[in-house]
Amino acid sequence: MRTPLTSQQDRQKAKATGRDTRTTVLQRSVRANVPLRKSFVQAPPGAASRHGPLKQFVTGRDLRGLKAYLMIVAACSNGENGWTTRHDSAVWARMMDIQTTATDQSARTGAWRTLRRLEGRKLIACSRSGTWITVTLLREDGSGRPYDRPDGKTEADLFLQIPATFWTKGYDEKLDLPALALLLVVAREKAWSAFPAERAPDWYGWSADTHERGLKKLLDLEYIERMKTFTKAPLAPAGYTEVYRYQRTAITRPRKPRKSTTISAKNTATKKSATSPSRIKG
How many CB atoms lie within 10 A of CB 244? Predict the structure, then answer.
């Protein structure tokens, strides 16, 4: 004979998870891919330093803050509410998975402190009214300027894209801080680019060891793939040098528009053309 569930068990079974919350936020933003300016990862050529705001998360060991920031970009960058989103602090905490290791009140406090760190880095503006927290997205370069959607027309407006499935399928949950940072680095560049660890301190602001650990984790998870290339080098002992090049695998690449939509649009255009009166030259 089955024992009926208690009301406490019922509540726990029905309670939304962090992934549920992130998925709902993404569904509300109605997008297949989330845009992020490349300047967040690395400053454009010619800047006094090539380090982008991402460096502060890595050197500060702030995985929670980085994940929270990427979700805020996902939630706000559709522009429907003026680059702003508003939730109860408990929802913010669940979005960051803080509630899994803290009491309700501690989770709420942790969410607010995380958002305040992002505000201190000039990536967002936030305010609190009772238990509700309002967050407004600022420009990804950490300048504190108002946000606008990147269009890719200038160096400062070039952007990478993160597929919504990165969150909805839980790929984000498997990453540590070096791996998440390196995924953004690989996403910033063209397919099959080289990412030499010895250049990491100058290019990104973190150690070569952190760089290598991030790439290894991504390879182990099959979020990226690698190929070895050879370059002629007359002064090298072997006469050539080996270079590893990387690109994202299918599960972490931006999603393309569905073919069915394109075909449907073409069929509609064909029907309209067929029913339109023909023009006769006189």
Answer: 15
